[in-house]
Specification:
alpha+beta, 1 helix, 24% helix, four-stranded antiparallel sheet
Length: 217
């Protein structure tokens, strides 16, 4: 009588199957980790850009508010399109005595390199930015009562999109304009500001804001 053939093969996976499964699992986990890291990086950059935009907007609102109480006849420099400046001085109207307007001492807004930075194309202060500066406001310029306030830091040397010596890369009609710059066209002054900062992981965030103000006659 013929006995049934026994099958001694055990159930389960072979070594090759285990290796293939492991490789596939590692690939899936790696892809998931990459997506998660990319998403987290994009989120950090978005949050950082929003913060930069808020800081830049507050600074420009201050410049526009102060500048609105001046007169186009007294703004220094009295330049017009297509010129621009990163240093503007002007008096403010304080009131009227008889038929004469009373003007304040000069108020100034200007770009200044941050402490430890110089204009040499290097990151001298180790913050990941090159030749960055502050937007500074001074009251009573040149007097013993002069005061200085830093409105914001992280101002880029050039406005976003510009490269040194190559023309008008960002298409706004200006060439090699600074990260803080003012452009005058008649009694209208357009103010632009670019801020930048690196996040703890080394990613760079940059944000530019713009506003305009009309000077008094």
């Amino acid at each position: 009588m013929r006995r049934p053939r026994s099958n001694n093969r055990r159930g389960g996976f072979t070594l090759l199957e285990v290796l293939i499964s492991s490789v596939l699992a590692i690939a899936v986990l790696g892809a998931a980790a990459l997506v998660s890291s990319t998403t987290a990086s994009a989120y950090r950059n978005t949050v950082l850009r929003a913060d930069l935009a808020n800081r830049a907007r507050r600074a420009l609102d201050r410049v526009a508010l102060e500048l609105a109480s001046s007169s186009g006849d007294f703004v220094i420099p009295a330049n017009e399109t297509p010129a621009w400046t990163d240093d503007i001085q002007f008096p403010q109207a304080l009131g009227v005595t008889g038929d004469v307007i009373d003007w304040s001492p000069l108020l100034q807004f200007a770009f200044e390199y941050e402490q430890g930075e110089i204009d040499d194309g290097l990151d001298n202060d180790g913050d990941g930015l090159v030749d960055e500066g502050n937007l500074v406001m001074r009251r009573d310029v040149g007097l013993a009562t002069e005061t200085r306030i830093v409105l914001c830091s992280g101002v880029t040397e050039l406005l976003q999109g510009e490269l040194p010596g190559l023309g008008d890369e960002n298409g706004n009609g200006l060439e090699d304009e600074a990260g803080f710059c003012l452009e005058r066209d008649g009694d209208v002054v357009t103010i632009r500001l670019t801020l930048a900062r690196r996040d703890p992981r080394g990613g760079m965030a940059t944000q530019t804001v713009e506003t305009s103000v009309r000077l008094r006659n």
